[in-house]
Design a protein that fits this description.
Number of domains: 1
CATH superfamily: Vaccinia Virus protein VP39
Oligomer: single chain
Shape: globular
CATH architecture: 3-Layer(aba) Sandwich
Number of helices: 9
Strand order of the largest sheet: 3-2-1-4-5-7-6
Helix content: 40-55%
Distance between the termini: 32 Å
Structural class: alpha/beta
CATH class: Alpha Beta
Order of helices and strands: EHEHEEHEHHHEHHHE
CATH topology: Rossmann fold
Largest sheet: 7 strands, mixed
């Protein structure tokens, strides 16, 4: 399940891409499927997620195993030289970090001049509903510590030396799921289980109807807001 749209994040053969906060590697595997002549590096603090991400790549992209690496590291002090990457992805990460501004500065250090950056965070109004329905949603260890205003985040990134060239919303069908999950936090609920099955079916089968429905609903209730930037200095 990709949050970014590869059409707005084109890769060239030989490009080196960093997925910062890669989790279980959904963007690494998704982009490697689009272009197998790139090098993708996933970084996360969660060792279990990194192991699962590596297992996916080893299983699905056996010939390309050497073109992907997974590293456990803190986003505030990444073990890479200046200007190491042609592209950086930071998807659904900044809302978890108390000092996200320092992470944006670290991203600026690592990205080559002219390189592309994709940042996504939870959209403000669907996220506010989640916070209202469940305090545990944002108080659990590793949970969300803030709700972003999209315009303010965009301004913060551009101030560092980036130009914004695209914005869209994603995962509208996931917003109701998270509202239900927050409403019935840690409780077994039939509607929640049924909706989860719908999302898994949609992910695996990609039926025309739900794909079209999500595209129509994304501007209204997309769970995530996605920005694309280009480094200007």
């Amino acid at each position: 399940m990709l949050t970014l749209n590869p059409d707005y994040f084109p890769l060239r053969n030989g490009d080196v891409i960093l997925d910062l906060g890669c989790g279980e590697g959904r963007h690494v595997s998704g982009l490697l499927e689009k272009n197998r002549e790139t090098t993708l590096i996933g970084v996360d603090l969660n060792l279990k997620d990194l192991k699962q991400a590596k297992e996916k790549i080893d299983t699905w992209f056996a010939p390309q195993k050497k073109q992907s690496r997974f590293i456990q590291a803190n986003a505030l002090t990444l073990p890479f030289k200046d200007h190491s990457f042609d592209h950086i992805i930071c998807s659904e990460v900044l809302e978890h970090l108390p000092d996200y501004q320092s992470v944006l500065e670290e991203i600026h250090r690592l990205l080559k001049p002219g390189g592309q950056l994709c940042v996504s965070v939870p959209r403000r109004w669907p996220e506010k509903i989640c916070w209202a329905l469940s305090s545990a949603y944002h108080q659990v260890e590793g949970g969300h510590v803030r709700i972003f205003r999209a315009r303010e985040l965009k301004s913060e990134v551009t101030t560092l030396g980036f130009s914004s060239y695209k914005k869209h919303w994603a995962h509208a069908l996931h917003s109701p799921y998270w509202w239900l999950k927050c409403m019935f936090w840690e409780k077994d609920n039939f509607l929640l289980r049924l909706y989860h099955k719908l999302l898994v079916w949609d992910l695996m089968e990609k039926p025309w109807l739900t794909r079209k429905l999500e595209l129509l609903l994304n501007p209204l209730m997309g769970k995530s807001v996605v920005f694309y930037f280009r480094k200007t200095d």
